[in-house]
């Protein structure tokens, strides 16, 4: 499918959302899935070539567009898109991935754990839930270095106010002076503080591979069953 760059949204100092116009075409996907993109040509060298996959950060309820959100760091692929003119055309393929709500899971209690850019699939899931008036029972622990690094902060806080069953906890590892929220690193202590028991919970973990692996081990130490832990590893792209 051919799509066109519609908008760039600067989410934080080094994170940008790329919004693409579908041109009236239908792109069917489920919140939490990924999408593969291919550029016709690179304007900057990239040893990994002209193809990438990203988690979809938009919701199917946002008609006519698809969006991904990424950290801009030393990638010819991303730099090409960052400097491309509005209207720039590229190709996307069929959505895929299983980091999604399965049938019957909307009635469960969920724990979303995100590190940095790992928040993107959750934005898709939560935006869809809010727009469809199908509130999920979710506790979200979102880890960042500082408050300036919190991606989608205003939108997430707005959705937490809109959906009483959605509890958002922003956790900073290097909080600035005056921060009144939660602070600390991702460890057993902070997980146990917010999750006294894993019984009856479905855990979702999204972020860098090291963070995801460490979090899975901590959850298993707490007694979470392997089948109740769903993961999405963001590779260094």
UniProtKB/TrEMBL annotation:
The organism's place on the tree of life at top rank: Bacteria
InterPro entries per UniProt: Cbr1-like_FAD-bd_dom, FAD-bd_FR_type, Flavoprot_Pyr_Nucl_cyt_Rdtase, FNR_nucleotide-bd, MRET, OxRdtase_FAD/NAD-bd, Riboflavin_synthase-like_b-brl
Gene3D superfamilies: Nucleotide-binding domain of ferredoxin-NADP reductase (FNR) module, Translation factors
Claim: Flavoprotein is one of the keywords in the record: yes
Flavoprotein keyword on record: yes
GO molecular function: 2 iron, 2 sulfur cluster binding; metal ion binding; oxidoreductase activity
Residue span, FAD-binding FR-type domain: 1-102
One Pfam family in the UniProt entry: NAD_binding_1
Cofactor(s) listed: FAD
Keywords for the protein's UniProt record, in alphabetical order: 2Fe-2S, FAD, Flavoprotein, Iron, Iron-sulfur, Metal-binding, Oxidoreductase
Residue ranges that the Swiss-Prot or TrEMBL entry lists as coiled coil: none
UniProt-listed SUPFAM superfamilies: Ferredoxin reductase-like, C-terminal NADP-linked domain, Riboflavin synthase domain-like
UniProt name for this protein: FAD-binding FR-type domain-containing protein
Species name: Candidatus Sulfobium mesophilum
Source organism phylogeny: Bacteria, Pseudomonadati, Nitrospirota, Nitrospiria, Nitrospirales
